[in-house]
Amino acid sequence: MRVADRTAATAGALLIAGFAFMMPGVAFAVSSQTGSDYVPPTFDSRAGAILLAIALLLTLAGLVVFDRILWRSGERVLSTAGTAAYAVAVSAWLAATVHALTAHRWTYGLEVTYIIAAGCAMLAFGAAVVRAGVPARWAGWATIGWSVGALILFALPSENYPPLFVQLVPLVLGIALVRAGVRGRAVVAGAG
Which pTM was predicted? Predict the structure, then answer.
């Protein structure tokens, strides 16, 4: 397996792992909701917070590795912007989580920051994938479509928007990256 193939498989595995940690995190978080901004000091709320933090950090790590792949393929601006925006999103979510675990109150403003920054990050990564063709343009178009849809859905007046809705995008990118890495098609200029 070439270096580029291993890098693609690593990025993909991190993105998929992030999604895998998100699922039980969401289940714990939902089971501890109170219908207000109050976050009870229970096992469920703590487990949900920790699992979601791990999920977002794994996703960020995967996007950093993926940024390197896109950088080598010649796509520097959009992938870097996507990485920076997702770092802002994760920082906002982690700040809200720390506040929730210590003050037992969820900070909606930080959640909104996460939603917008993560949506814009995924949109930037989708455009970078379409431009670079790495790992596959279909993954870029799917990413763009889902991200635009998520941002439009968030803009509509509703109180039931799932904040981690955009996290399906890293799963799609992760699967495409693993497929490209395993099949030895992660050909990237300057790698390997």
Answer: 0.92
